[in-house]
Amino acid sequence: FGTPEQELTVIFDTGSDVTWIQCQPCLTSCYSQQEPLFAPAQSTTFSSVSCSDPACSQLNSPDCSNNTCVYTVTYGDKSYTNGFYSEDTLTLSPTDTLTSFFFGCGVNNSDGFGKVAGLLGLGRGPASLISQSNTKYNSFFSYCLPSTSSSTGYLTFGGEAPTNLNSTQMLTNSSMPSFYFLGLQGISVDGTQLDIPPTVFSNVGTIIDSGTVISRLPPEAYSSLRDAFRQKMSNYSEAQATNLLDTCYDLSSYDTVEIPTVSLEFEDGMALDLDASQILFLVNGPSQACLGFAGNKDASDVGIIGNTQQRKFSVVYDVPNQVIGFGQGGCD
Ligand SMILES: *[C@@H]1O[C@H](CO)[C@@H](O)[C@H](O)[C@H]1NC(C)=O
Ligand SMILES: *[C@@H]1O[C@H](CO)[C@@H](O)[C@H](O)[C@H]1NC(C)=O
Ligand SMILES: *[C@@H]1O[C@H](CO)[C@@H](O)[C@H](O)[C@H]1NC(C)=O
Ligand SMILES: *[C@@H]1O[C@H](CO)[C@@H](O)[C@H](O)[C@H]1NC(C)=O
Ligand SMILES: *[C@@H]1O[C@H](CO)[C@@H](O)[C@H](O)[C@H]1NC(C)=O
């Protein structure tokens, strides 16, 4: 961010729009982060956004303080960021520079973001990086999330779709305009389709979100998946559950482990076949390996395909053509 560049590590989140970073002077509250806080005063291209700027009105419920546009974002887990809406140069790579990029300078931020400096909002709403860079990248981007911290992934804006993708329609719900919806309608375990009425999914919809770790299913769908998974895993010793994950095993004493396959099935016939690294979430290495899905509390809560289930795939978002594609071996 800024000129000269202040290099910062951020989360990228396809489930929200506003990009923000913690800023100096941190007036109210900042969590500790790995790099120094962004210093607007040291950037020659920085300016704050006035309340009458059209960019301010693209925010959800903006505020105005001393004629500066004030943004607030509250996430699903109740974490939040709040501060001054700002404008500066954003350099994504030596060849990818966005001038006059709008983002939040957070001076009142809760915990819950680890040690990163902030977040890139890659949602579909007008304030997102995707919408702001539409003329440059045509709302096309892709990424691969590696399955271990020692392997690498990528995030690319613009360009062409990789070949050999399995694609499904990107759906829209105008009452939640930031989200990328997919038509999830069923789940198979070891090739057998679970007995879940498709309306359990379609009544609430399912989004794909790089910023959620564990996928969330409607309660009825989750209990059906959990029961089938437990039955297939009944020969393995159980391990303690966590707050979110209720189906865990101690696999540390086995040389080989056979995990049932899980396949997510979509309205237009696409199937997403998940392997062990996309099904199990290792809370504590192999001694606490848990089914990496959770049930929503309420049958009316939206479903989420989270990042545990996306890792190792190329995930391609083609907004103009309303398509999301998945490719095997994306991080290879
Ligand atoms: C409002 O802006 C003026 C002029 O920049 C500044 O002197 C004043 O301290 C600001 N007030 C607050 C409450 O930030
Ligand atoms: C900080 O943000 C939270 C969440 O929006 C808000 O409730 C609180 O009043 C803010 N604190 C200050 C000092 O603005
Ligand atoms: C959009 O979401 C709302 C709120 O959850 C829901 O009531 C409505 O049925 C959804 N619309 C479509 C077209 O799915
Ligand atoms: C559990 O182990 C027994 C004995 O080795 C085997 O016959 C059975 O098929 C296994 N069950 C499952 C669900 O793998
Ligand atoms: C794509 O579909 C093919 C054929 O159904 C399947 O073999 C492959 O595993 C799928 N790829 C992904 C990423 O799910």
TrEMBL record:
Segments spanning the bilayer are: none
What does the entry give for GO biological process? proteolysis
User: What name does UniProt use for this protein?
Assistant: LOW QUALITY PROTEIN: aspartyl protease family protein At5g10770-like
Protein family membership: Belongs to the peptidase A1 family.
Which CDD domains does the record associate with it?
Answer: cnd41_like
Molecular-function annotations in GO? aspartic-type endopeptidase activity
Organism this protein belongs to: Dioscorea cayennensis subsp. rotundata
What are the alphabetically sorted keywords of the record? Aspartyl protease, Hydrolase, Protease
Under the heading Pfam families, the entry gives:
TAXi_C, TAXi_N
Which part of the chain is the Peptidase A1 domain?
A: 1-327
Question: What are the positions of the active site?
Answer: D13, D209
Q: Which InterPro entries does the annotation name?
A: Aspartic_peptidase_A1 (IPR001461), Aspartic_peptidase_AS (IPR001969), CND41-like (IPR033873), PEPTIDASE_A1 (IPR033121), Peptidase_aspartic_dom_sf (IPR021109), TAXi_C (IPR032799), TAXi_N (IPR032861)
